[in-house]
Amino acid sequence: MVVPSHPHPADGPVRAGIPEHGRIPRYYAVKVRLLELIGELGEGATLPTERELSERYDVSRASIRQAVSELVLEGKLRRRQGSGTFVAPPKLVQRLSLGSYTESLRQEGLEPARTLITLEHRPADPGLAGELQLVPGEDVIHLERVLLADGERIGLESTYLVSSRFPALMDVFDPEESLYACLRDQLGVVFEGAEERVETVLATPREALLIGTNPALPMLLVHRVSWEPGGKPFERVRSLFRGDRLSFSTRL
């Protein structure tokens, strides 16, 4: 495959893939051409077969396969078993703020929903107790839900709340609705601040099954501890999101 030397809109990403020895990996040059093709085809369109792409770009099917695999991992393409590979829709944007998941998605014009997996009382292990300033073994409320956007599963959220702070939570909270709205409007919680950490991880087999994703796809993990005025923490949240369907934004 010959990569043109004249200026080209794809030169930017091509140059980004040039290693120190100066040779462009063949699959990466193919990937750039596929990005152009994705833009031309548009959301939901079917990608040509490996054989057709191999003939179009005059490269091996192995190079096509590697380029397509990377674009699937990045969320640019989607594979459907028995149907082919399709151009993926744009990623959803989750704002990093003290607002809730519900509010954030609705600002993007999407309809949030949740599926309850677990709602229980359990003793805090030493790590959780340390984060919530509790004594190990002290009771916490554990809430686990699959998160959806316009009916599509995009994440799994596990929240731990200090039971002694919210003795009436089980009586007033609807697991299909916003937890933060309940805490704020019905239980009088004032959010003073939170500390969040974002990292990339792979889902466990159980998590991948609940979210409906391939365990090999990268996930975005958000770990959050929130506190009320006075600095007393009241919740720890572990949110796992599909890296191919969601990105984060914040204003600094």
From TrEMBL:
<dbReference type="InterPro" id="IPR036388">
    <property type="entry name" value="WH-like_DNA-bd_sf"/>
</dbReference>
<dbReference type="InterPro" id="IPR011663">
    <property type="entry name" value="UTRA"/>
</dbReference>
<dbReference type="InterPro" id="IPR028978">
    <property type="entry name" value="Chorismate_lyase_/UTRA_dom_sf"/>
</dbReference>
<dbReference type="GO" id="GO:0003677">
    <property type="term" value="F:DNA binding"/>
</dbReference>
<feature type="domain" description="HTH gntR-type">
    <location>
        <begin position="22"/>
        <end position="90"/>
    </location>
</feature>
<dbReference type="GO" id="GO:0045892">
    <property type="term" value="P:negative regulation of DNA-templated transcription"/>
</dbReference>
<keyword id="KW-0805">Transcription regulation</keyword>
<dbReference type="GO" id="GO:0003700">
    <property type="term" value="F:DNA-binding transcription factor activity"/>
</dbReference>
<dbReference type="Pfam" id="PF00392">
    <property type="entry name" value="GntR"/>
</dbReference>
<keyword id="KW-0804">Transcription</keyword>
<dbReference type="Pfam" id="PF07702">
    <property type="entry name" value="UTRA"/>
</dbReference>
<keyword id="KW-0238">DNA-binding</keyword>
<dbReference type="InterPro" id="IPR000524">
    <property type="entry name" value="Tscrpt_reg_HTH_GntR"/>
</dbReference>
<protein>
    <submittedName>
        <fullName>GntR family transcriptional regulator</fullName>
    </submittedName>
</protein>
<dbReference type="InterPro" id="IPR050679">
    <property type="entry name" value="Bact_HTH_transcr_reg"/>
</dbReference>
<dbReference type="InterPro" id="IPR036390">
    <property type="entry name" value="WH_DNA-bd_sf"/>
</dbReference>
